[in-house]
Structures are given as structure tokens and as C-alpha cells.
Amino acid sequence: MAQLGGTPVLILREGSERTRGRDAQSRNILAAKTIAAAVKSTLGPKGMDKMLVDSMGDVVITNDGATILKEMDIEHPAAKMMVEIAKTQDDEVGDGTTSAVVIAGELLKRAEDLLEQEVHPTLIVTGYRLAAEKSYEILKELTKDVTPDDTETLKKIAMTSMTGKGAEVARELLTNLAVESVRAIAEKGGKIDIDHIKLDKKTGGSKDDTVLIKGIVIDKERVHSGMPKLMENAKIALVNSALEIEKTEVDAKIEITSPDQMKAFLDEEERMLKSMVDKVKDSGANVLFCQKGVDDLVQHYLAKEGILAVRRVKESDMKKLASATGGKILTTLEEIRPEDLGSAGLVEERKISGEEMIFVENCQNPKAVSILLRGGTEHVVDELERGMNDALRVTACAVEDGKYVAGGGAPEIELALKLRDYAASVGGREQLAIQAFADAVEVIPRALAENAGLDPIDMLVALRSAHEAGNKNAGLDVFKGEPTDMLKAGVIEPLRIKTQAISSATESATMILRIDDVIAATTAKPPAGGMPPGGGYPGMEEEY
Q: Which residue has the higher pLDDT, 526 or 193?
């Protein structure tokens, strides 16, 4: 609303809400702090789980930060930014989502204190950015190197990621599987595509029944009961066209006037279908995976020839099969040649939890593998999948970057210590923001202590003393309740977890701090004249 010569001028649509200045900042900071507080209790080996129930009554039980925030129905725009932090961290590294969100919340909490002391938001933003840049330098000094052949170190990294999650019970077995599968698909140069590790979930059995298959598991069954259930030394044809008589592209009409013509027509159709099977057989294939449909008659002929066939295989599974078996995906049967076939030591249909699955195993040097996850209930298997996914991602990061740091809050304490020294060397009010940043990163060891039922102040003082005495890798052992050398304890994490968490948290916190005006529009209503949908001036309102 503006005044022009005493006459009110309406700028925004009636019902729009506008918050400005300190009020807008306070609201945004409160929303972000609330989100951070929601996930803070899940941090660390003694973190608690959250139960999320959606409007349909479906239940998710997890302590994975990204999953919790994804399942929460969040309305506030600043809170949505915090969810983005977790999503980015999950996409980039796979773990450390809770840490990233908690650090962002703490950065905003510390900034609020500075705002009350009349420090301008842009000065806080500058200070935070300087501190983040310095943090990357400090972290680089703390790193250790790891090679893809150093399986012991990789297992420790995977185990650290799984600790405190639902997958922890069988973590010895699971970490072995995670490291083995990542090393199997690693290409020269260390690039790893985690999509080549297929996680299949089946309820029943226990977590200890989880197995790694050096090949691919397909959640399908044979197309015909007359086909063999087991095929050793399999030669595999991968076809993505239908083994059926295709309908013509254009509308066509065939006129049949006598029974002889009808018979000739049907005979020709059968001959065409039979020739498809002959092509498969002549190539030497004894297993066929088809992405589309397989005609009933083709199924019959394939069964007669003793060929095991599976139809309507997902495109993603076809690509994994090609990577695992070394076969080529063929667009048409015309081009099928013996050299295009994939190979596997064994292809077998097995019954798992009452459902048939096709196992393609014992592949030579497979570049795609499967892990079959088992657990007592659906919720257990789901949480197992989340834990396994994190372990795979962090192991892949460690192999790709070849760098790791100590865990247990050790890097954060060292960062805070060095940043306080750095703040003293920076002139102006920015040093206040750098000190606030140093205090904020200490939220990680503090949260670890709180969640373990220890006194956070005593623990922080003990950790600071250890670091000042020169023990850079001293972190909090939540089981003993004392500072411990985390490298010796085997609590280690990839460097990328820390750098990405600081980067995402700083960027989101600075973005929220720079907002001093929130204009929330009401839902657009068409005027009485009946403007078409999408009418009006572009950018007139923003709906949150």
C-alpha cells in the first residue's frame, strides 16, 4: 500500500502478506533453526530415529537426515532451503546430510546474535565466506591418502557411515559387501557410477542373509514353465525389440476371401515367429532377456529349444546386464551375432520370499553387480537400503578422491581452533562473523555429546585441550565419553563429506541472511471478466 496525494494505491493483490527488515530475517532464521533442531537428535552413533507417518498412513522409520526432511511436509520457503542442503549433500556424497543441515542452522543462530549487535547482514555474509574458504585450506592439511587397494581403510570409512543407523547390527558383513562391490565396478582413473550397483530388497530372513551377487538380479520369472530353470555357462542375448508380429505403421487392410488364403496367412505368421527363434538359436544364445513382449508361440519354440527367456525387463536393468555380462543390447534380431552375446557362469530362477527372481551370476570381471538385501520387516529392509546406499556412496567418494579425514567431531574442533586464530588476523567487523563461524562448526561435537547423554560443555573443553596440545585427530568417543584419536579408533570419513557440508551450509545460510523482505502472495483468482489461466502481468505474484 502506498499513498499518493492522500489516495491509497494498491500495489500488491489484496490478501498478500509482506514482512520486512529484522522481522523477515527473524522469521526465516527461526524456520531454518527449527528444521536443524528436528534432525539434530539423529546425529552420531547414539542418535535417535524418527517415525514419519504420511497422510496415507504409510510409515517411514529412519535417522537419515535427507530422508527425514524429504518425508516432512514443509511449507515455509526458508525451511525448504534447508531441505535443499540435505538433498545436495545426499546427491554429492550420500552421507553427512544431518551434519550439513545442523551446521547451517547453527550459522544462522550465531548470525542472529550478531544482527542484534547491529552488525550488517552483508558483513556477516562476507565473514562467513572468508571462513568457509579458510576451512577448505585447514581441512586439506588434515587429510590422509587412501588407495582403491587399501581395503582395510575403505572398510573403516564404510563402517563409520553405517554406525548409528539401522544397518549397524550386521555392519561387518555389509561393509565388506560395500567395499567389494565398489572395487568391482571401479574403472581406471577411479571414476565410479554407483548406479551400476543394484540394491534389491526382499523381506524375510535376517540382515545376515544379505549377499553380493557378482552379476545382476532381475525381479522377473521365466516366460514359459517349460524352459530350463538353470543354465550354466550361459550365452546371453539382450534384445530391446518385441519378439512379436509387429503391427504396420500405417493403417492397412488385408482381404482374405478363401480358407486357403487364411491358412497361408497364418502359416506365414508362424514361420516369421519361428525364424526369430532360429536366429536366437543360431547365434549360440541359450538365455534371452527381452525389453518388450514375447509372443506365446515364440515362448513355445524357445522352450522347445531349451532357451531360458525373460520378457519386459526394465531398460535400467538391461544396461546393467550389458555391463555385467559384456553383451550388447540389440535393437533387432537381424543383427544378432555370437560376439554380441554376454556370458555368465550361471543363470538361474530362484524363489526368494515367495517370488521368483532371475540370478545372473559368476560373470567374468563384471562392471555391474547386485546386492540382495534381506531383513525381518519392510521397515528394516528400507532402513538397511538407506544405510547401504550411504556406505556405497562414501566408499565411492573415498576411492575417487583418495582423501579422508578423522571423524567424531575432530576436524570441526580443529577448524574452530584455527578459525579463531584466523579471525584475529582479519580486520573490521568481519572477524566477528569468522568467530561466529568457528563457534557454529563446534555444534557437531556438541550434538554428538548431547545425543550420547554426555555433558556437552565438559566434552568440548576436553576436546579443545587435546587439540591445543597438538592432537589434531582427537574426536569424541561417545562410548567411553572421552577424547580419543579417531584415526586409531578407525572412525574416518571422506574429505568430500566435510567440504560439501561446509559449502552447502554456508551458501544457504548466507542466502537466507541476505533476505530482508518476504512477499507472500495469495492464490491467484481470475477476475470477474474471466481472464484465462496464466493471465495477468508476469511476475506479479509469487506463491509460497
A: 193
